[in-house]
Amino acid sequence: MSAIFKIDSDGCMSLKSTNDYMYLVTYTIEGETTTPAICTAREIFDKMDLDDCYSIDIKNLYLIKNNGTPLKVQFSGTWHDHTDPLKMCITSMNGKRIFDYGYGTDH
Q1: 88 partner at 20 to 30 Å CA-CA among 10, 51, 94, 105?
Q2: Dist. CA 35–CA 26, nearest whole Å
Q3: If residue 45 lies in a helix (H) or strand (E), which one and from where to where?
Q4: Do the Cβ atoms of 23 and 90 come closer than 8 Å?
Q5: pLDDT tens digits, residue range 7-50?
Q6: Is 47 helix (H, G, I), strand (E, B) or coil?
Q7: Is residue 46 classed as helix, strand or coil in its secondary structure?
């Protein structure tokens, strides 16, 4: 498992993602559905970090497995865990397996 960190403008380091998985994601932004795109968890976390600033939701999210087979997964954004409010996760549909997690910014 590798970790990707980001240094913010205050010089603080924050965890942005934990693995190198690729995901097929479709967003709904301001009521419009986007074209499906292949993204890393870091890209998803960066985009969803601002979900409290404008209307954005994940409509569909699939982990692209090594054999190319998509596996439906779920995204939990900031404030899904009140004990760790900036944490975001991508998990199995039953929530038992965490594929990626990272942290949003306190903005």
Answers
A1: 10
A2: 6
A3: helix 41-48
A4: yes
A5: 556 655 555 566 779 999 999 999 999 999 999 998 999 899 87
A6: helix
A7: helix
